[in-house]
TrEMBL record:
Keyword Transport part of the UniProt annotation: no
UniProt-listed SUPFAM superfamilies: LeuD/IlvD-like (SSF52016)
Annotated catalysed reactions: (2R,3R)-2,3-dihydroxy-3-methylpentanoate = (S)-3-methyl-2-oxopentanoate + H2O; (2R)-2,3-dihydroxy-3-methylbutanoate = 3-methyl-2-oxobutanoate + H2O
Pfam families: ILV_EDD_C (PF24877)
The Dihydroxy-acid/6-phosphogluconate dehydratase C-terminal domain, residue ranges: 3-125
Protein name in the entry: dihydroxy-acid dehydratase
Taxonomy, superkingdom: Eukaryota
Family designation: Belongs to the IlvD/Edd family.
Pathway(s) served: Amino-acid biosynthesis; L-valine biosynthesis; L-valine from pyruvate: step 3/4; Amino-acid biosynthesis; L-isoleucine biosynthesis; L-isoleucine from 2-oxobutanoate: step 3/4
Keyword terms of this UniProt record: Iron, Iron-sulfur, Lyase, Metal-binding
Source taxonomy: Eukaryota, Sar, Stramenopiles, Ochrophyta, Bacillariophyta
Keyword Magnesium: no
Length: 125
């Protein structure tokens, strides 16, 4: 089914303002998995809502060709392939803190899978 899987390249930002600058500077390309980390309850602090980034991605015409992962949260107004509330969050050493720009990522949101895989070698971990 469309919209349940996505494979792309990590584009990593440590906060919402840097992601917005990246979008304005055309750093985000089709096929990217945009990661906004350090937005969880401790890192945010307070678990900020990610409506602005999802709206900006949609407004840039990238809503169907990029995914967004965050340890922040989404409201009911967000659109596109987005996954939030990733735990453990980056601030407490969760795996999202280890992702680097250019890392290949596979997301499978089908009900029998529900995985996010960083496609790097064991040596890179």
């Amino acid at each position: 089914k469309e919209g349940e899987t996505f494979t792309g390249t990590a584009r990593v930002y440590d906060n919402e303002p840097s992601m917005m600058r990246g979008l304005e500077n055309k750093e985000i390309k089709p096929g990217d998995v945009v990661i906004i980390r350090y937005q969880g309850p401790k890192g945010g602090p307070g678990l900020p809502e990610m409506l602005t980034p999802t709206s900006a991605i949609m407004g840039a015409g990238l809503g169907d060709v990029v995914a967004l992962l965050t340890d922040g949260r989404f409201s009911g107004g967000s659109h596109g392939f987005c996954i939030g509330h990733i735990t453990p969050e980056a601030q407490v050493g969760g795996p999202i803190a280890l992702v680097k720009n250019g890392d290949p990522i596979r997301i499978d949101a089908r009900s029998d899978q529900r995985t996010i895989d960083l496609l790097i070698s064991d040596e890179e971990w």
